[in-house]
Amino acid sequence: MGKSTHFSGQPLYSQVINLLDRSKILQISQQHDGERYVKSFNCWSHLVVMLYAVIMRFDSLREISTSMLAEARKLVH
Questions:
Q1: Which residues form the DUF4372 domain (predicted)?
Q2: Alpha-carbon span 63 to 60, nearest angstrom
Q3: Which band of pLDDT confidence, cut at 50, 70 and 90, is reported for residue 42?
């Protein structure tokens, strides 16, 4: 992995996302037909939301959706 690992001053969530290779994840998903019926919410978006939910320790889909709506303008990943 040729990505930089100097993350001083960045939030934990941003650090985790920066370590992931978006193109490789999408490529693997397409190889296994993970994107077959996808219109807009692809595997990358799903992974980003699920990592956010784990880091924030959410217990329900309602918590995830409420937080995503509140933080939508801050998330540019």
A1: 9-77
A2: 5
A3: confident
Residue with tokens 């999408």: 26
Contacts of 21 (CB under 8 A, 6+ apart): 1, 3
Tokens read off for 17: 């996302």
Domain boundaries, the chain: 12-71
Res 27 pLDDT > 60: yes
The average pLDDT across 16-23 equals 91
The span from the CA of 59 to the CA of 41, in Å, is 21
Looking at residue 25, what is its pLDDT?
Answer: 92
